[in-house]
Amino acid sequence: MALTYGTDEWNQAYDALVKERTESQSKPYVMGTPEWVAQYEELIQNDAEYKEAAKDWEGSVVIKILAKPEIGLDKDLYMFMDLWHGDCRFVKIVPAEVGESADYVITGEYERWRAVMAKELDTIKGMMQGKLKLKGDLPTIVRAVKASARLVDLSASTDCRFPDELDAAGIEDLRALLKRAEDEFGI
Question: Cβ contacts of residue 24 below 8 Å, gap of 6+?
Answer without folding.
Answer: none
